[in-house]
Amino acid sequence: MDKKQIELLQGTLDMLILKAVSLGPLHGYGVLLRIQQISKDRLEIQQGSLYPALYRLEHQGWIASEWGESENKRKAKYYRLTAAGKRKFQTEAEKWNRMADVIAGILQSTPEEV
Amino acid sequence: MRTLSRIQSWMRAVMGRSRMEREMDAELHFHIEAFAEDLARNGVPRPEALRRARIEFGAVERAKEECREARGISLFDGLTQDFQYAVRTLRKNPGFTATAVLTLALGIALNATMFSMVSAFLLRRPPGQEPSRAVVISGINPTQGFQSDLSGVSAPNYLAWRQANHVFVEIAAADEYRTVSLTAQGTDRSGQRTSIGRPEALRASAVSSNYFRVFGVSPQIGRTFADGEGLAGHDHVVILSHELWERRFGSEASVIGGTIRLNRENYTVIGVMPANFRLMGFVPQLWMPLVLRAADQTEAARKERSLNLYARLKPGVTLEQARAEMVTLAQRAEESFPETEKGWGVGVRTLPEYLVQNFSVRGGLAVMMTAVGFVLLIACANVAALLLARAAGRRKELAIRISLGAGRLRVVRQLLTEGLVVAFLGGGGGLLASYWGINLVRANMNFNEYVSAVPISLDWNVVFFALAISVASAALCGLVPALSASRTDVNTNLKEESRALSAGRSHSRLRTVMVTGEIALALFLLVGTGLLIRRLSVLHNQNLGFVPDHLLTAGVTLDSAQYKDASQQAAFVRNAMIQLRQIPDAEAVAATSDLPATGPGKVTFLIKGQPELPANQRLSALDFVITPEFFRAAGIPLLRGREFTERDNGTGTRAVLVNQEFVHRYLQGQEPIGKQIRLDVSGATPEWSEIVGVVGNTKSFSGSTREEGQVFEAMLQRPISSFALMIRAASDPEGLVGAMRNAVRQVDAELPLVQVMSMHAVIKRQDGGDAIFEALLASFALLALILAAIGIYGLVAYSVGQRTHEIGIRMALGAEKPHVLRMVLRDGLKMTAIGAAMGLVMALPLPRVFEAVLYFGGENIQEPALYFIVPIAMTVVTMLATYIPARRAMKVDPVVALRYE
Fold it and tell me: Which DSSP category does A9 fall into?
């Protein structure tokens, strides 16, 4: 395993999943690969915790699932973003960005500015 | 839409449970497969790839569990699973299950059975509309005594308050304790003569015409009283109780409009009340109008506090407002008539509250419920100890489950479910057993008509109560082992070999605490029960001061139609005595206002030469009115002076006898014979009477050790209309019943006798509840002792089993057998000593608690010996329970024990 991987912040996995499926329907393993791919393998994701998150998001109506066929002709469960999920993702992303700005601003502030 | 999707997903999850499980399996499986394929593609050998994929993924079961939780079905789902699992484990251990279930069933059955009495006596809704808006107004007697705050109200106060109050829709009055004779013939509606057997004395309640309106009840057939029917001349109408209508009139509707003969006068039957119109503690068989005459409005009538007042609150008026108003009215009466009203207060209670207080069973029931509650606690502790012991044996299993990813909460829930299943099995069994128990109680709760009139049954209250205590027991039994199991440390437990010297310390410590608690509770119960039983046996065996054996008694009420004045009443008494004396086996015959030890009324008096005090400060004594042979018939010794003779009649100077206590209390040992006293007898002009004799003390009431001053008046000098007859029989008194009835018939063929029974039967009617109380409490305490003994036996046996290895080592190293025995016995003794000490401390204030709850009237029920005997007995029993397993420890063969696994 790559030592430079960082652990996921609490509560961010949901957002990442929403982002991953917003680019097109994916099965669970696909979600994992997509996140790793986008993050360039810099994030460590507990595979076991992926599915409870998927189930929770589906239960909340942000994503929907249906059975389909995988690239290698196997039955797999595909998740896609719902309309509500899209809105949810947008507000969450905005919130995250604002938060990141604020935190970054605080961390970068110099003694003179305070 | 989100809610909808959530419900859909939940529905899918619950309905298509197996489908969801399959899909989840497939999905996770696909993930691992796909991952492994990717690894294989990168050159990892196939089996190694699969292994790595599994490791990377982590605990599959936990993931599944979290998925289920994410769906929000986990709770429901898990419960079913827990339940199935619990049933499976319990079925695998039938011995454990049977013991636990039976123990709980026993405890729950006892509680449910006792609760049926609580339900019958305390929780039944009185009849009528909105019974909680109906109230009862009672007088408060300034002289403290049994139920002194539930006294009656006088007619003048009733009339004044009815006019003056602004808080009640109306106030009704009832004189509940009248006796009327129902004589042989009457007519039905068509004027046909009807014959209904021999004359019978009935309990009647004279009520104001608005009485039934206040309760808001309607008759089953006919009508209730009209407003004018409370006036003299219009009052010959009567309403029958359902019971009387059924028994004497064959449930014939034609009885309405017909006449029946009551006290030798014709009364028109106007209605029949339904069977459910019954106020606890009152058993009238018919209702007649209460007629208030001019004499009932005089100041003298203020002393006759014989009315119960029932009222209905005006809409919007609270009980407190009504109370405040009545207190003001009572103060007004006190200011206007200080001579009679001084100190008298007034209380207002809701009807249900009044009925319960009036019946005065609350204290007794509280004691019983506490006792059975403790028995259940002990039973729960035993079952919890069983579960705990088993949990200790299952530590490894639990550790494995936790390490496989089962959450601790899941494990706790699992153990709780087991407790729940045991408790519900026990609850079901207990409820079944209580059906039998309730029948048993009902069969015994019939020692007098007031108790018989309260139907005890397995009603919904009992079922809900059984359910509630089952859940509580489940919590009690399951929580302790569950919490202790949840603290299981996975690593130590997986590594721990059963070769450890002694079993998990925290487990046995918890059990020791519980068993110690059991011993404390059992000891507490034994001391409490011992105190009560000791008191009852003192009462039961006390010398009442007279001889109740071979004494036949009966009640007589002379009606005013035939016996208009005192001379006619006196004539009846004289003739009745002559006839009764004719009975061959009658050794002595007498009439008396009250039978001995049945709690007669009090009379205030003045001793000549002492200053005259206001009415409420005068001396008082119990008042008997008797015929000459009374003392011989009752077997009360004459100590000084003389008895009454036939010459102590209306023409002679008034004479009285007093008892020893009277001389002691009020004459301070002066020579009593020849002293003059004046009794304040209502309705008579005060006259000085001379004390002509002194007799021995009798108890005021059979259920008490109290002795009070007593005054005996001569019935021929002050005839009364209601009294008891007594025959001292040479043979079995019950054999003289027919002869007694015959003798009275010779004097007056239409006069019925009531409660013809032996004096022993009279006492049993009074104190019948005590015997049941005693028997029940004794069995509860015994049960508590047995359960506690089982508890300590189980604990010691278990720990000996666990310590077999250790004991083996000790013996191999040279420990002697007696030493091992002592070691085990010491453990048991320590628990007993601590438990007993705790129990004793708890039991110390019991005499005072009983005094407050059960109204013993200041009697001393200290019994110091009990505080020694009970702990010793307790120690003997627990030592026995410890000795059996301890002997087994002694027999341990070191060679076998060291191999013991």
Answer: P
Residues of chain B contacting residue A75, judged by C-beta atoms under 8 Å apart: 26, 30
Verify whether the Cβ–Cβ distance B30 to A76 is below 8 Å. Answer: yes
Q: Which residues are B468's β-sheet partners?
A: none
User: Element (H or E) spanning B212, and its range?
Assistant: helix B211-215
How far is B239 from B212, CA to CA, in rounded Å? 11
Counting as low any pLDDT under 70, the low residues of chain B are 1-17, 72-78, 184-197, 393, 404-408, 485-508, 615-616, 683-684, 855-861, 898-901
Contacts of B651 (CB under 8 A, 6+ apart): none
Between CA B411 and CA B121 the distance in angstroms is 44
Cα dihedral B76→B79→B83→B85 (10° resolution): 120
Q: Within 10 A of B683 (CB to CB), how many other CB atoms are there?
A: 10
Decide the pairing of beta strands A43-44 and B259-262: unpaired
Would you state the structure tokens that stand for residue B157, as one six-digit string? 């106060």
- Residue showing tokens 């009862």: B136
For chain B, list residues whose CB is within 8 angstroms of any CB belonging to chain A. 1-2, 4-6, 9-10, 23-24, 26-28, 30-31, 33-35, 37, 56-60, 62-63, 66-67, 69-72
CA B641 – CA B694 distance, rounded (Å):
6
Residue of A nearest to B4 (CA): A61
Q: Residue B40: list chain A partners with CB under 8 A.
A: none
Closest residue in chain B to residue A79, using alpha carbons only: B27
Yes or no: say if B456 and B442 are a contact pair by the CB < 8 Å rule. yes
- Measured CA to CA in angstroms, residue B322 lies from B132, B136, B331, B388, B454 at distances of 13, 11, 14, 57, 30
The DSSP-derived string for B743-765 is: HHHHH-TTPPPEEEEEHHHHHHH
What count of CB pairs under 8 Å joins A to B? 79
Residue A94 burial (10 A CB sphere; 0-12, 13-18, 19+): exposed
Query: Using one digit for the tens of pLDDT, what is the confidence trace for B758-817?
Result: 999 999 888 878 888 888 888 898 899 888 888 888 888 888 877 777 888 888 888 888
| Cβ(B588)–Cβ(B728) below 8 Å | yes
Whether the CB-CB separation of B264 and B279 falls below 8 Å is answered with no
Q: CA-CA distance, B693 to B656, in Å (whole number)?
A: 7
Q: Are B438 and B458 a contacting pair, CB within 8 Å?
A: yes
In angstroms, the CA B1 to CA B8 distance is 10
Q: Strand, coil or helix: what is B240?
A: strand
